[in-house]
Protein backbone atom coordinates (compact mmCIF):
# COMPACT_ATOMS: atom_id res chain seq x y z
CA UNK A 1 0.00 0.00 0.00
CA UNK A 2 1.44 3.38 -1.00
CA UNK A 3 1.88 6.16 1.52
CA UNK A 4 0.95 8.96 -0.86
CA UNK A 5 -1.82 10.14 -3.13
CA UNK A 6 -1.98 11.57 -6.63
CA UNK A 7 -2.87 15.26 -6.83
CA UNK A 8 -3.40 17.88 -9.50
CA UNK A 9 -0.80 20.38 -10.66
CA UNK A 10 2.00 18.33 -12.20
CA UNK A 11 5.36 20.10 -12.15
CA UNK A 12 4.00 23.10 -10.21
CA UNK A 13 2.20 21.12 -7.50
CA UNK A 14 5.15 21.41 -5.04
CA UNK A 15 5.28 24.72 -3.15
CA UNK A 16 7.38 27.51 -4.58
CA UNK A 17 7.41 26.39 -8.21
CA UNK A 18 6.03 28.06 -11.32
CA UNK A 19 6.18 27.04 -14.98
CA UNK A 20 5.09 28.05 -18.45
CA UNK A 21 5.16 26.83 -22.02
CA UNK A 22 4.79 29.10 -25.04
CA UNK A 23 5.11 29.14 -28.81
CA UNK A 24 8.39 30.86 -29.65
CA UNK A 25 8.60 29.96 -33.33
CA UNK A 26 11.26 27.28 -32.89
CA UNK A 27 9.14 24.55 -34.50
CA UNK A 28 7.89 24.87 -38.07
CA UNK A 29 4.50 23.57 -36.88
CA UNK A 30 3.96 26.66 -34.71
CA UNK A 31 3.17 24.37 -31.77
CA UNK A 32 4.34 25.24 -28.23
CA UNK A 33 8.12 24.82 -28.18
CA UNK A 34 9.69 26.66 -25.23
CA UNK A 35 9.24 25.84 -21.53
CA UNK A 36 10.50 27.33 -18.29
CA UNK A 37 10.39 25.82 -14.79
CA UNK A 38 11.14 28.24 -11.98
CA UNK A 39 11.78 27.89 -8.24
CA UNK A 40 11.12 30.94 -6.10
CA UNK A 41 14.19 30.02 -4.02
CA UNK A 42 17.50 28.34 -4.81
CA UNK A 43 16.86 24.61 -4.99
CA UNK A 44 19.09 21.59 -4.53
CA UNK A 45 19.64 20.25 -8.05
CA UNK A 46 20.66 16.84 -9.33
CA UNK A 47 20.78 15.29 -12.74
CA UNK A 48 21.26 12.07 -14.68
CA UNK A 49 22.33 12.42 -18.30
CA UNK A 50 23.02 10.50 -21.49
CA UNK A 51 26.21 8.45 -21.60
CA UNK A 52 26.50 8.93 -25.35
CA UNK A 53 29.84 10.26 -26.60
CA UNK A 54 27.86 12.48 -28.99
CA UNK A 55 26.16 14.92 -26.65
CA UNK A 56 24.15 18.10 -26.97
CA UNK A 57 25.59 21.35 -25.65
CA UNK A 58 22.90 21.50 -22.97
CA UNK A 59 24.06 18.18 -21.51
CA UNK A 60 27.66 19.34 -21.10
CA UNK A 61 26.45 22.70 -19.80
CA UNK A 62 24.31 21.06 -17.09
CA UNK A 63 27.04 18.64 -16.08
CA UNK A 64 29.53 21.46 -15.64
CA UNK A 65 27.06 23.59 -13.68
CA UNK A 66 26.07 20.77 -11.33
CA UNK A 67 29.72 19.94 -10.66
CA UNK A 68 30.38 23.56 -9.66
CA UNK A 69 27.24 24.07 -7.58
CA UNK A 70 24.52 21.50 -7.03
CA UNK A 71 21.73 24.04 -7.00
CA UNK A 72 19.57 25.94 -9.47
CA UNK A 73 16.56 28.24 -9.79
CA UNK A 74 15.37 27.50 -13.32
CA UNK A 75 15.22 24.94 -16.13
CA UNK A 76 14.89 26.22 -19.70
CA UNK A 77 13.88 23.69 -22.36
CA UNK A 78 13.44 24.22 -26.08
CA UNK A 79 11.90 21.86 -28.61
CA UNK A 80 12.63 21.89 -32.32
CA UNK A 81 16.42 21.81 -32.38
CA UNK A 82 18.61 19.41 -30.39
CA UNK A 83 21.68 21.66 -30.54
CA UNK A 84 23.76 18.45 -30.67
CA UNK A 85 26.81 18.08 -32.96
CA UNK A 86 26.80 21.86 -33.40
CA UNK A 87 30.36 22.54 -32.24
CA UNK A 88 31.63 25.69 -30.56
CA UNK A 89 28.79 27.84 -31.88
CA UNK A 90 26.23 25.51 -30.35
CA UNK A 91 28.05 25.78 -27.03
CA UNK A 92 28.03 29.57 -27.26
CA UNK A 93 24.31 29.47 -28.05
CA UNK A 94 23.72 27.55 -24.83
CA UNK A 95 25.72 30.11 -22.84
CA UNK A 96 23.79 32.95 -24.46
CA UNK A 97 20.44 31.37 -23.58
CA UNK A 98 21.45 31.14 -19.92
CA UNK A 99 22.87 34.64 -19.86
CA UNK A 100 19.82 36.31 -21.40
CA UNK A 101 17.38 34.37 -19.23
CA UNK A 102 19.47 35.12 -16.14
CA UNK A 103 19.33 38.83 -16.86
CA UNK A 104 15.55 38.71 -17.24
CA UNK A 105 15.11 36.67 -14.04
CA UNK A 106 17.75 38.73 -12.22
CA UNK A 107 19.72 35.63 -11.25
CA UNK A 108 23.16 34.25 -12.11
CA UNK A 109 23.34 32.20 -15.34
CA UNK A 110 24.86 29.33 -13.37
CA UNK A 111 21.54 29.00 -11.52
CA UNK A 112 19.91 28.01 -14.82
CA UNK A 113 19.92 24.49 -16.28
CA UNK A 114 19.25 23.83 -19.96
CA UNK A 115 17.63 21.10 -22.04
CA UNK A 116 16.92 20.78 -25.75
CA UNK A 117 15.09 18.33 -27.97
CA UNK A 118 14.61 18.16 -31.70
CA UNK A 119 16.68 17.53 -34.81
CA UNK A 120 20.32 16.55 -34.23
CA UNK A 121 22.78 18.85 -35.95
CA UNK A 122 20.53 21.89 -35.85
CA UNK A 123 21.37 24.91 -33.68
CA UNK A 124 18.69 26.66 -31.67
CA UNK A 125 16.97 29.44 -33.60
CA UNK A 126 18.54 32.12 -31.47
CA UNK A 127 16.61 35.13 -32.75
CA UNK A 128 13.32 33.41 -31.92
CA UNK A 129 14.67 32.15 -28.60
CA UNK A 130 16.00 35.49 -27.39
CA UNK A 131 12.91 37.30 -28.57
CA UNK A 132 10.62 34.94 -26.64
CA UNK A 133 12.38 35.05 -23.27
CA UNK A 134 10.60 38.20 -21.95
CA UNK A 135 7.21 36.68 -22.73
CA UNK A 136 8.30 33.38 -21.21
CA UNK A 137 9.25 34.98 -17.90
CA UNK A 138 6.21 37.25 -17.79
CA UNK A 139 3.84 34.31 -18.16
CA UNK A 140 5.30 32.13 -15.38
CA UNK A 141 2.42 30.76 -13.33
CA UNK A 142 1.60 28.30 -10.56
CA UNK A 143 -0.89 26.88 -13.07
CA UNK A 144 1.65 26.62 -15.89
CA UNK A 145 2.57 22.97 -15.51
CA UNK A 146 0.30 21.72 -18.30
CA UNK A 147 1.59 24.27 -20.80
CA UNK A 148 5.20 23.40 -19.93
CA UNK A 149 4.48 19.69 -20.46
CA UNK A 150 3.01 20.53 -23.87
CA UNK A 151 5.96 22.70 -24.92
CA UNK A 152 8.66 20.03 -24.45
CA UNK A 153 7.16 17.30 -26.65
CA UNK A 154 8.09 16.44 -30.24
CA UNK A 155 6.63 13.26 -31.79
CA UNK A 156 4.76 12.44 -28.55
CA UNK A 157 1.04 11.87 -28.99
CA UNK A 158 0.24 12.87 -25.41
CA UNK A 159 1.83 14.93 -22.64
CA UNK A 160 3.24 13.15 -19.60
CA UNK A 161 2.71 14.61 -16.14
CA UNK A 162 2.24 13.47 -12.52
CA UNK A 163 2.17 14.88 -8.98
CA UNK A 164 2.13 12.99 -5.68
CA UNK A 165 1.73 14.13 -2.07
CA UNK A 166 2.69 12.51 1.23
CA UNK A 167 3.13 13.67 4.83
CA UNK A 168 6.48 13.99 6.56
CA UNK A 169 6.56 15.05 10.21
CA UNK A 170 2.97 16.23 9.94
CA UNK A 171 3.50 18.48 6.91
CA UNK A 172 2.58 17.83 3.27
CA UNK A 173 5.45 17.11 0.88
CA UNK A 174 4.92 17.05 -2.86
CA UNK A 175 6.80 15.80 -5.90
CA UNK A 176 5.77 16.72 -9.46
CA UNK A 177 7.16 15.73 -12.81
CA UNK A 178 6.83 16.03 -16.56
CA UNK A 179 8.53 14.09 -19.35
CA UNK A 180 8.77 13.81 -23.11
CA UNK A 181 9.77 10.87 -25.19
CA UNK A 182 8.35 8.64 -27.89
CA UNK A 183 11.29 7.53 -30.04
CA UNK A 184 15.05 7.11 -29.49
CA UNK A 185 14.18 5.48 -26.17
CA UNK A 186 16.74 3.07 -24.78
CA UNK A 187 18.36 5.11 -22.03
CA UNK A 188 21.63 4.32 -20.37
CA UNK A 189 21.72 6.22 -17.07
CA UNK A 190 19.07 8.65 -18.28
CA UNK A 191 15.75 9.17 -20.00
CA UNK A 192 14.72 11.31 -22.93
CA UNK A 193 13.76 14.50 -21.11
CA UNK A 194 12.21 14.55 -17.65
CA UNK A 195 12.00 17.29 -15.06
CA UNK A 196 11.06 16.73 -11.42
CA UNK A 197 10.26 19.25 -8.70
CA UNK A 198 10.01 18.66 -4.96
CA UNK A 199 9.37 20.91 -1.97
CA UNK A 200 11.16 18.75 0.62
CA UNK A 201 14.41 19.82 2.23
CA UNK A 202 17.07 17.23 1.41
CA UNK A 203 20.85 17.16 1.41
CA UNK A 204 22.69 17.59 -1.89
CA UNK A 205 24.44 14.24 -1.88
CA UNK A 206 21.38 12.30 -0.77
CA UNK A 207 19.15 13.92 -3.43
CA UNK A 208 21.58 12.88 -6.18
CA UNK A 209 21.78 9.34 -4.80
CA UNK A 210 17.99 9.12 -4.62
CA UNK A 211 17.61 10.34 -8.20
CA UNK A 212 20.19 7.87 -9.51
CA UNK A 213 18.46 4.94 -7.81
CA UNK A 214 15.05 6.13 -8.99
CA UNK A 215 16.35 6.39 -12.57
CA UNK A 216 17.73 2.85 -12.39
CA UNK A 217 14.30 1.55 -11.36
CA UNK A 218 12.37 3.54 -13.95
CA UNK A 219 13.87 5.30 -16.97
CA UNK A 220 16.76 2.86 -17.24
CA UNK A 221 14.25 0.01 -17.47
CA UNK A 222 12.33 1.22 -20.51
CA UNK A 223 13.01 0.72 -24.19
CA UNK A 224 11.09 1.61 -27.33
CA UNK A 225 13.58 1.10 -30.12
CA UNK A 226 17.06 0.45 -28.72
CA UNK A 227 18.36 3.96 -29.46
CA UNK A 228 19.76 6.36 -26.87
CA UNK A 229 19.49 10.08 -27.58
CA UNK A 230 22.24 12.68 -27.61
CA UNK A 231 20.13 14.84 -25.28
CA UNK A 232 18.80 12.47 -22.60
CA UNK A 233 18.40 14.42 -19.36
CA UNK A 234 16.67 13.84 -16.03
CA UNK A 235 16.84 16.93 -13.80
CA UNK A 236 15.36 17.23 -10.31
CA UNK A 237 15.00 20.31 -8.08
CA UNK A 238 14.19 20.26 -4.35
CA UNK A 239 13.60 23.70 -2.82
CA UNK A 240 12.67 22.90 0.79
CA UNK A 241 9.51 25.03 0.74
CA UNK A 242 7.48 22.36 2.57
CA UNK A 243 9.31 23.57 5.70
CA UNK A 244 9.93 20.04 6.90
CA UNK A 245 13.20 19.17 8.70
CA UNK A 246 16.06 18.50 6.32
CA UNK A 247 16.39 14.88 5.22
CA UNK A 248 20.06 13.94 5.40
CA UNK A 249 19.99 10.16 5.92
CA UNK A 250 17.98 7.20 4.69
CA UNK A 251 15.84 7.11 7.81
CA UNK A 252 12.07 6.51 7.53
CA UNK A 253 11.58 10.00 6.06
CA UNK A 254 14.38 9.49 3.56
CA UNK A 255 12.97 6.13 2.53
CA UNK A 256 9.49 7.60 2.11
CA UNK A 257 10.79 10.47 -0.03
CA UNK A 258 12.82 8.16 -2.27
CA UNK A 259 9.90 5.77 -2.68
CA UNK A 260 7.67 8.63 -3.81
CA UNK A 261 10.38 9.97 -6.15
CA UNK A 262 10.71 6.49 -7.65
CA UNK A 263 6.94 6.27 -8.12
CA UNK A 264 6.93 9.59 -9.99
CA UNK A 265 9.79 8.45 -12.24
CA UNK A 266 8.15 5.08 -12.90
CA UNK A 267 4.87 6.72 -13.85
CA UNK A 268 6.64 8.98 -16.34
CA UNK A 269 8.82 6.14 -17.67
CA UNK A 270 5.80 3.94 -18.34
CA UNK A 271 4.05 6.87 -20.00
CA UNK A 272 7.03 7.22 -22.37
CA UNK A 273 7.01 3.50 -23.20
CA UNK A 274 3.23 3.54 -23.66
CA UNK A 275 3.57 6.45 -26.09
CA UNK A 276 6.29 4.79 -28.16
CA UNK A 277 6.19 5.78 -31.81
CA UNK A 278 3.56 3.66 -33.56
CA UNK A 279 2.86 1.64 -30.40
CA UNK A 280 -0.52 0.07 -29.69
CA UNK A 281 0.16 -1.25 -26.17
CA UNK A 282 2.49 -1.13 -23.19
CA UNK A 283 4.55 -4.24 -22.43
CA UNK A 284 5.55 -5.00 -18.84
CA UNK A 285 8.05 -7.81 -18.20
CA UNK A 286 8.41 -9.12 -14.65
CA UNK A 287 11.30 -11.48 -13.87
CA UNK A 288 11.68 -13.55 -10.70
CA UNK A 289 14.12 -16.13 -9.41
CA UNK A 290 17.39 -14.62 -10.66
CA UNK A 291 20.54 -14.62 -8.57
CA UNK A 292 20.17 -10.87 -7.89
CA UNK A 293 18.05 -7.88 -8.90
CA UNK A 294 20.59 -6.68 -11.45
CA UNK A 295 20.43 -9.99 -13.31
CA UNK A 296 16.64 -10.00 -13.24
CA UNK A 297 16.49 -6.43 -14.57
CA UNK A 298 18.87 -7.35 -17.37
CA UNK A 299 16.70 -10.28 -18.45
CA UNK A 300 13.54 -8.17 -18.27
CA UNK A 301 14.99 -5.38 -20.38
CA UNK A 302 16.38 -7.82 -22.97
CA UNK A 303 12.96 -9.40 -23.40
CA UNK A 304 11.05 -6.13 -23.64
CA UNK A 305 13.64 -4.76 -26.07
CA UNK A 306 13.60 -7.75 -28.42
CA UNK A 307 12.37 -6.73 -31.87
CA UNK A 308 11.01 -10.25 -32.38
CA UNK A 309 9.06 -10.19 -29.12
CA UNK A 310 7.75 -6.70 -29.85
CA UNK A 311 6.73 -7.71 -33.38
CA UNK A 312 4.98 -10.86 -32.14
CA UNK A 313 2.93 -8.85 -29.67
CA UNK A 314 1.95 -6.39 -32.40
CA UNK A 315 0.88 -9.39 -34.51
CA UNK A 316 -1.12 -10.77 -31.54
CA UNK A 317 1.03 -13.93 -31.66
CA UNK A 318 1.62 -15.56 -28.21
CA UNK A 319 5.07 -16.69 -29.32
CA UNK A 320 6.72 -18.00 -26.17
CA UNK A 321 9.79 -19.11 -28.16
CA UNK A 322 10.85 -15.52 -28.83
CA UNK A 323 10.49 -14.68 -25.14
CA UNK A 324 12.57 -17.69 -24.14
CA UNK A 325 15.24 -16.89 -26.72
CA UNK A 326 15.50 -13.29 -25.52
CA UNK A 327 15.83 -14.41 -21.89
CA UNK A 328 18.55 -16.84 -22.90
CA UNK A 329 20.69 -14.21 -24.66
CA UNK A 330 20.49 -11.63 -21.88
CA UNK A 331 23.97 -12.54 -20.64
CA UNK A 332 22.68 -13.95 -17.35
CA UNK A 333 23.33 -17.54 -16.34
CA UNK A 334 20.37 -19.72 -15.38
CA UNK A 335 19.28 -23.32 -15.89
CA UNK A 336 16.93 -23.51 -18.85
CA UNK A 337 15.09 -26.35 -17.10
CA UNK A 338 13.93 -23.76 -14.54
CA UNK A 339 12.41 -21.39 -17.11
CA UNK A 340 8.75 -20.46 -16.67
CA UNK A 341 6.87 -18.03 -18.94
CA UNK A 342 3.38 -16.58 -18.56
CA UNK A 343 1.51 -14.20 -20.84
CA UNK A 344 -1.13 -12.52 -18.71
CA UNK A 345 -2.89 -15.47 -17.05
CA UNK A 346 -1.76 -17.93 -19.72
CA UNK A 347 1.01 -20.32 -18.64
CA UNK A 348 3.05 -20.95 -21.80
CA UNK A 349 6.15 -22.72 -20.48
CA UNK A 350 7.11 -24.47 -17.26
CA UNK A 351 10.32 -26.23 -16.23
CA UNK A 352 11.81 -25.29 -19.58
CA UNK A 353 9.13 -27.07 -21.60
CA UNK A 354 6.20 -25.66 -23.60
CA UNK A 355 2.67 -26.36 -22.38
CA UNK A 356 -0.62 -26.73 -24.16
CA UNK A 357 -2.61 -23.50 -23.94
CA UNK A 358 -5.54 -21.83 -25.66
CA UNK A 359 -3.67 -20.01 -28.40
CA UNK A 360 -6.72 -18.14 -29.66
CA UNK A 361 -7.61 -16.90 -26.17
CA UNK A 362 -4.01 -15.77 -25.62
CA UNK A 363 -4.09 -13.97 -28.95
CA UNK A 364 -7.34 -12.28 -27.94
CA UNK A 365 -5.61 -11.12 -24.73
CA UNK A 366 -3.01 -9.33 -26.86
CA UNK A 367 -5.69 -7.91 -29.11
CA UNK A 368 -7.64 -6.52 -26.16
CA UNK A 369 -4.52 -4.78 -24.85
CA UNK A 370 -4.01 -3.02 -28.18
CA UNK A 371 -7.59 -1.78 -28.09
CA UNK A 372 -7.12 -0.27 -24.65
CA UNK A 373 -4.43 2.22 -25.65
CA UNK A 374 -3.82 4.89 -22.96
CA UNK A 375 -6.04 2.97 -20.54
CA UNK A 376 -5.02 0.68 -17.68
CA UNK A 377 -6.12 -2.27 -19.84
CA UNK A 378 -3.48 -1.52 -22.46
CA UNK A 379 -0.71 -3.45 -20.68
CA UNK A 380 0.59 -6.81 -21.90
CA UNK A 381 2.10 -8.60 -18.91
CA UNK A 382 4.90 -11.12 -19.45
CA UNK A 383 5.97 -13.00 -16.31
CA UNK A 384 9.20 -15.00 -16.32
CA UNK A 385 10.89 -17.11 -13.65
CA UNK A 386 14.43 -18.40 -14.09
CA UNK A 387 15.05 -20.23 -10.82
CA UNK A 388 14.75 -19.93 -7.06
CA UNK A 389 17.01 -16.92 -6.48
CA UNK A 390 15.93 -13.81 -4.61
CA UNK A 391 16.48 -11.44 -7.54
CA UNK A 392 13.52 -9.75 -9.17
CA UNK A 393 13.26 -7.11 -11.89
CA UNK A 394 10.84 -5.28 -14.10
CA UNK A 395 11.06 -3.46 -17.45
CA UNK A 396 8.65 -1.67 -19.76
CA UNK A 397 8.42 -1.22 -23.49
CA UNK A 398 5.92 -1.29 -26.34
CA UNK A 399 5.10 -3.30 -29.41
CA UNK A 400 6.77 -2.67 -32.78
CA UNK A 401 4.31 -1.69 -35.48
CA UNK A 402 4.44 -0.76 -39.16
CA UNK A 403 3.90 2.84 -38.13
CA UNK A 404 7.25 3.00 -36.29
CA UNK A 405 9.10 2.57 -39.58
CA UNK A 406 6.76 4.96 -41.35
CA UNK A 407 7.17 7.67 -38.72
CA UNK A 408 10.95 7.45 -38.65
CA UNK A 409 11.29 7.12 -42.42
CA UNK A 410 9.38 10.38 -42.91
CA UNK A 411 10.63 12.35 -39.88
CA UNK A 412 14.17 13.69 -39.60
CA UNK A 413 15.70 13.32 -36.11
From TrEMBL:
Keywords: Acyltransferase, Amino-acid biosynthesis, Arginine biosynthesis, Autocatalytic cleavage, Cytoplasm, Multifunctional enzyme, Transferase. Its main location: cytoplasm. Pathway: Amino-acid biosynthesis; L-arginine biosynthesis; L-ornithine and N-acetyl-L-glutamate from L-glutamate and N(2)-acetyl-L-ornithine (cyclic): step 1/1; Amino-acid biosynthesis; L-arginine biosynthesis; N(2)-acetyl-L-ornithine from L-glutamate: step 1/4. InterPro entries: Arg_biosynth_ArgJ (IPR002813), ArgJ-like_dom_sf (IPR016117), ArgJ_beta_C (IPR042195). Its EC number is 2.3.1.35, 2.3.1.1. It is found in: Cytoplasm. SUPFAM superfamilies: DmpA/ArgJ-like (SSF56266). The active site is at residue 191. The keyword Hydrolase does not apply. Heterotetramer of two alpha and two beta chains. It comes from Cyanobacterium stanieri (strain ATCC 29140 / PCC 7202). The record marks 190-191 as: Cleavage. Belongs to the ArgJ family. GO terms for cellular component: cytoplasm. It catalyses: N(2)-acetyl-L-ornithine + L-glutamate = N-acetyl-L-glutamate + L-ornithine; L-glutamate + acetyl-CoA = N-acetyl-L-glutamate + CoA + H(+). GO terms for molecular function: L-glutamate N-acetyltransferase activity; L-glutamate N-acetyltransferase activity, acting on acetyl-L-ornithine as donor. Substrate binds at residues 154, 180, 191, 277, 408, 413. This is Arginine biosynthesis bifunctional protein ArgJ. One of its GO terms (biological process) is L-arginine biosynthetic process. Catalyzes two activities which are involved in the cyclic version of arginine biosynthesis: the synthesis of N-acetylglutamate from glutamate and acetyl-CoA as the acetyl donor, and of ornithine by transacetylation between N(2)-acetylornithine and glutamate. The record marks 117-118 as: Involved in the stabilization of negative charge on the oxyanion by the formation of the oxyanion hole.
Amino acid sequence: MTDWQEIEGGITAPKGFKAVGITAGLKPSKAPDLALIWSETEAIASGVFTTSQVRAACVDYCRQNLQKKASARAILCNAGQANAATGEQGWQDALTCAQVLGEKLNISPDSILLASTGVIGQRIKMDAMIGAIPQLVDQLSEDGGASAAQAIITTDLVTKSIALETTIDGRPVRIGGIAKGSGMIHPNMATMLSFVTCDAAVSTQLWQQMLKRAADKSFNQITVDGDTSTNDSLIALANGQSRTPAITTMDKNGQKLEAMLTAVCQHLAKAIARDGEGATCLIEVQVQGAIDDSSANKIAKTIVGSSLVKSAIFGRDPNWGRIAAAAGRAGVQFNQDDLMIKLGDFLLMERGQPLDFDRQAASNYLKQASQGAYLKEDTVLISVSVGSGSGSGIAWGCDLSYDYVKINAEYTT
